[in-house]
Amino acid sequence: MARTRSQVAHQKVIEAAISLFAERGLDATSMDTIAEVSGVSKATIYKHWPNKDALCLEALSYLVGSDIRVPVPDTGDLRADLIARLSYQAAPDRAFLRERIMPHVLAYASRNLEFGKAWRARAMSPVITALKEWIQREQQRGTLVQTIDVESAISLLMGPLLYRNIFHKREAGAQVQFAPHLERHIAEAFLALYAVPRRQGVSL
Q1: Domain 1-63 classified CATH 1.10.10.60?
Q2: With 0-12 CB in 10 A as exposed, 13-18 as middle and 19+ as buried, what is 53?
Q3: How far apart are CA 80 and CA 126, in angstroms?
Q4: Angle between helix 52-63 and 5-24 (nearest 10)
Q5: N or C end of the chain: smaller count of CB under 10 Å?
């Protein structure tokens, strides 16, 4: 089905905003510049979004793949499922821009607390909730110990990935050189701490 003019304009603004945010940062990108680059008038932009923060939140949600359903691996192999969870990237074609834009997002969110709260609710909370549900499920199955400090566990799982994404940016088309097997290392460290030992009859 062909998109309406309004839908086309909406997507052009999203794409222009993402490109500008990645290149210049959020503070340095004005609605005037977004209008100029997208070819969509400011009046039309403000019909879709009340302010730059609202536009930014939608653009970032698109960039991280919030429009794509995240698969939930459950093969019975605890290690493989965890690695698959940590390795999954929604919309891999958007990965380079995600890496470019994330330091700008964190800097902007640190100065704009309401934006930061809204961004975490949109982007981070679903991921964290899914990991917490996975931990609880595996505890019920007896494959993870019952004494897990969930917040510490989430930090162990997410922290190294965020560090890589923030501090190890790459050029377009280049392969990531930093810790190419990072997800496997994270999974093995996590399971070394929290998996029920094999001697108790649980196969990992």
Answers
A1: yes
A2: middle
A3: 21
A4: 90
A5: N
Quote the CATH superfamily of domain 70-194: Tetracycline Repressor, domain 2 (1.10.357.10)
**74-92: per-residue pLDDT in tens?**
998 999 999 998 988 777 8
- Could you tell me the pTM of the whole model? 0.72
- Name the residue ranges covered by the structural domains of the chain: 1-63, 70-194
| Four-residue CA torsion sign, 51, 55, 57, 58 | positive
Phi, psi of 11 (to 5 degrees): -70, -35
> C-alpha dihedral over 72, 149, 79, 179, to 10 degrees?
100
Show the CA angle centred on residue 70, arms to residues 49 and 147, nearest 5°.
115
